[in-house]
Amino acid sequence: MTQTHTEHHERDDGRAIDLTFAEPDNVVRGGLVVLHEVGGVTGGVRLLIASLAAEGWLAAAPHLEDEPTPEGVLAATDVALAWLVDRGVPADLLGVVGFDMGGTAALLVAANRKLGAAVSVGGQSVAEKPALIDIARELVSPWLGLYGDAGDDLSAAEVEKLREAAAGARVATNVVRYPGANHRFDADPQAAVEAWQRTLSWFDAHLR
C-alpha cells in the first residue's frame, strides 16, 4: 500500500496548514485535494489518500477544524492547491473530493473555485447552513454528488432537489442516489464499489 505522510506546510505569505499526502509510485496524472470528515485525518482518510495515489493521483488532505467556516474551508483548500502546483501539477489537472462534512466542503469549493473536477460523497442536510441547494446553483467546477438514501443526512427528496439545483449550473454535473447505502457506504459494499468507480471515472473524464 502506498505510504501517507504528514507535514506542516508554510507559504511565503504566512499561510500555514498541516497536510497529509501520498504520492504515486509512477507518473502523476494530476492532483486532488481530499476534504475529510468530522474527526480529522483518520485511518479511513489515510486509506482514501493512499488509494487515490495508487490510481496515479497526488492526493493531499489539509487538516480542517471539526466545524470549519466556509472561509476556513476555502483558505485551507487554496493552500493545498498551491502545494500541489508547487509539485508540478498543472492547474487544469487539479480536483477536489470530500465525504461527510468534506462532501459539503467539496461542493462549496466547486462553487467558489474553478477546478477541473469535484466529487462529494454525502454531506449535511440542505436545511443546515450553508444550504447545499443554494451552493449547487453557483457551481463553477464540474461536480459529481454521491448520496446514500439509508443515511440520516439527506433524504431522497432533498437529494433530488440538489440534483435539480446543480443541473442549472453552467458546468457538467451529476447526482447519484444509492437506496441501500448510508453516508459512509459501509451498509452496501456493492454500492461502495460502484461509487468508487464513478469517482475515478469522473476524474478520468475531466482531468485530462
TrEMBL record:
Keywords: Hydrolase. SUPFAM superfamilies: alpha/beta-Hydrolases (SSF53474). Coiled coil: none annotated. Residues 70-206 form the Dienelactone hydrolase domain. One of its GO terms (molecular function) is carboxymethylenebutenolidase activity. The keyword Hydrolase applies. Its EC number is 3.1.1.45. PANTHER family: CARBOXYMETHYLENEBUTENOLIDASE, CARBOXYMETHYLENEBUTENOLIDASE-RELATED. This is Carboxymethylenebutenolidase. It comes from Amycolatopsis thermophila.
